[in-house]
Specification:
about 170 residues, three-stranded antiparallel beta sheet, mainly alpha, extended, 3 strands
């Protein structure tokens, strides 16, 4: 049984909803912000590389880039090495957004913790830091340990068994 009852995921989902709501007031969605963020950190990136990095299809990448170009967040320049492709660059307008998503999330989490007593907040933040580093090290290792743990839990087989049992009961 999950001791957290997936509450970390549920909190993150609420933060995401607030972030989307707030960013939409500025006329930009989180998916668009992800493109801006990637281009800012990789000036001169191609649309193909954006698509591959963000794991989005060709049409979605084209639509997001075109939208961001129209809104003034990105510009395209011809690729001097390849006459067919274009390179993407963030504009000054995009640079002003650079911390908006992180800032919105940070403010939400700050607000969320305001009612905790200082010692409880400190202990909670220390626990979060421990969990964060465990996650980060696991990602760097290719998620090997958590993949093995998932295989041991094997929820697909458990669901199949539960479905089979439910089928037997309803058939009776």
């Amino acid at each position: 049984m999950d001791d957290t009852e997936r509450k970390m995921t549920k909190i993150a989902r609420e933060v995401s909803k607030f972030t989307v709501q707030t960013m939409k007031e500025d006329g930009i969605g989180t998916a668009e912000f992800d493109v801006i963020h990637l281009v800012r950190h990789n000036p001169g990136i191609t649309q193909t590389k954006v698509r591959e990095t963000l794991k989005i299809d060709k049409g979605a990448a084209a639509k997001r880039v075109a939208s961001l170009e129209t809104k003034g967040y990105l510009i395209r320049k011809p690729n001097p090495d390849d006459g067919r492709s274009q390179l993407l660059y963030a504009t000054e307008k995009a640079e002003k957004l650079k911390n908006s998503k992180a800032h919105i999330e940070s403010v939400f989490y700050e607000w969320l913790l305001t009612e905790l007593p200082p010692e409880e907040k400190a202990a909670f933040c220390q626990t979060l830091d421990t969990l964060y580093w465990k996650c980060k090290l696991q990602r760097r290792a290719g998620f090997v340990d958590v993949t093995d743990y998932l295989a041991q839990k094997n929820p697909v087989e458990e669901r199949k068994e539960a479905d089979n049992e439910a089928g037997k009961i309803s058939a009776q």
